[in-house]
């Protein structure tokens, strides 16, 4: 079954860090970029960045640069997103998403065809 | 940090046609980047609805169609059905931000 399975909900205090994991299964893990998207309560979607599973290369949204790190472990087909110095406005559902077509296909802007179930991160004192 | 502007809400009676606009700039849609559309039924995960301006993934009804022109794109829903009540988001790429951007989102209400 092609799916992305994320870690469970987290509650953190301001200033702390959180790591959300996302395990891929049912497809060739290294062939597709994995992105992270978050959605604050009642708000829209915000792109956070992406990781290249084969190389570990990353690109981050400018407003999160310096606070976010995305990594991967190919042995367990899992990507991780760490967000540091948490603030209350980081409270959101965090999604990992697969981008298609595969990395080897050039020329088209990839779309997000497979979404994880989401992980709620609550930041509160 | 949405840079694509959508109307907050649109509504229509069952069977009617509604359209949702997505307005960008010369650094995103106007630069030639494709537009994708996602549907999010309340309480569920977003779902890819239209890719590359007007391609429907397998399983998406042909009531949904997309178009793009200049610095804007639009999503049309014909033969509106109750199950179409959801939030809809456009997405593209912004060269000035070097990253993906989403629209502000539009809530579709079936009257």
Structure, explained:
The complex is a heterodimer of chains A (125) and B (111). With 125 residues, chain A is mostly beta strands. Chain A contains no helices and eleven strands. Chain A has strands spanning 3-6, 10-12, 18-25, 34-39, 45-51, 58-60, 68-73, 78-83, 92-100, 111-115, 119-123. In chain A, the strands form two sheets. In chain A, strands 2, 4, 5, 6, 9, 10 and 11 form a seven-stranded mixed sheet that branches. A four-stranded antiparallel sheet of chain A has the order 1-3-8-7, with no helix packed on it. Chain A starts with a strand and ends with a strand. Chain B is mainly beta and 111 residues long. Chain B is 0% helix and 44% strand. In chain B, a hairpin with a 6-residue loop joins strand 3 (36-40) and strand 4 (47-50). Chain B contains no helices and nine strands. The mean pLDDT of chain B is 96. Chain B has strands spanning 9-12, 18-23, 36-40, 47-50, 64-69, 72-77, 86-94, 99-102, 106-110. In chain B, the strands form two sheets. In chain B, strands 1, 3, 4, 7, 8 and 9 form a six-stranded mixed sheet that branches. Chain B has a three-stranded antiparallel sheet with strand order 2-6-5, with no helix packed on it. At the A-B interface, strand 5 and strand 10 of A face strand 7 and strand 8 of B.
């Amino acid at each position: 079954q092609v799916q992305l399975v994320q870690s469970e909900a987290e509650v953190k205090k301001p200033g702390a860090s959180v790591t959300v994991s996302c395990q891929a299964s049912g497809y060739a893990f290294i062939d597709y970029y994995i992105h992270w998207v978050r959605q604050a309560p009642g708000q829209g979607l915000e792109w956070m960045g992406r990781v290249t599973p084969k190389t570990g290369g990353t690109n981050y949204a400018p407003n999160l640069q310096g606070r976010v790190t995305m990594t991967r472990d190919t042995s367990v087909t899992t990507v991780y997103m760490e967000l540091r110095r948490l603030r209350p406005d980081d409270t959101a559902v965090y999604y990992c998403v697969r981008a298609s077509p595969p990395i080897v296909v050039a020329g088209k802007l990839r779309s997000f065809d497979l979404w994880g179930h989401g992980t709620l991160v609550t930041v509160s004192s | 940090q949405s840079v694509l502007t959508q109307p907050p809400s649109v509504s229509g009676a069952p069977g009617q046609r509604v359209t949702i606009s997505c307005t960008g700039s010369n650094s995103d849609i106007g630069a030639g980047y494709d537009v994708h559309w996602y549907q999010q039924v309340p309480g569920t995960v977003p779902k890819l609805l239209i890719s590359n301006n007007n391609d429907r993934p397998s399983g998406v009804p042909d009531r949904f169609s997309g178009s793009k022109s200049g610095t804007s794109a639009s999503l049309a829903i014909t033969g509106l059905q109750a199950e179409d009540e959801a939030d809809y988001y456009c997405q593209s790429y912004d060269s000035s931000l070097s990253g993906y951007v989403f629209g502000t989102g539009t809530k579709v209400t079936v009257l």
